[in-house]
Automatic annotation (TrEMBL):
Gene3D superfamilies, per database record: Phosphotransferase system, lactose/cellobiose-type IIA subunit
GO MF annotation: an example: transferase activity
Native source organism of the sequence: Oceanobacillus indicireducens
Pfam (any one): PTS_IIA
Name of protein: PTS lactose/cellobiose transporter subunit IIA
Keywords carried by this UniProt record: Phosphotransferase system, Sugar transport, Transferase, Transport
Phosphohistidine: residues bearing it: 76
Lineage: Bacteria, Bacillati, Bacillota, Bacilli, Bacillales
GO biological process: phosphoenolpyruvate-dependent sugar phosphotransferase system
InterPro entries recorded: PTS_IIA_lac/cel, PTS_IIA_lac/cel_sf
Length: 103
């Protein structure tokens, strides 16, 4: 079995970066740093979009019958993208609560 790192690693890398930046942005929202939060969540979204684009490319390869082996690594990478989306969404929701209660 050949493991094609170039297939799954970009998904993991981009999704992980999105999660890290979303958590960092949420921390800024807790500190009431509106500008820092907005810049941070925007950066997180850029990485999330990049992860989604890479995921879409992979899905398009499979739809054109240029299939990539679906293995545990690809499934793991897809999980990272899903988790990144959820973390970004939750960070935004929680940030709104923190910033709404700004004194």
């Amino acid at each position: 079995m050949t493991i094609d790192v170039e297939v799954f690693m970009p998904l993991i890398t981009e999704a992980s970066q999105a999660k890290t930046l979303a958590y960092r942005a949420l921390g800024l929202a807790k500190e009431q740093d509106v500008q820092g939060y907005e810049a941070g969540i925007a950066d997180a979204k850029k990485h999330l979009i990049a992860a989604h684009k890479k995921q879409t490319e992979l899905l398009q390869l499979n739809s054109r019958e240029q299939q990539t082996d679906i293995n545990i690594y690809v499934i793991h990478a897809m999980d990272h993208v899903t988790n990144a989306q959820m973390i970004c969404d939750m960070a935004q929701e929680l940030a709104e609560l923190h910033l709404e209660n700004k004194s």
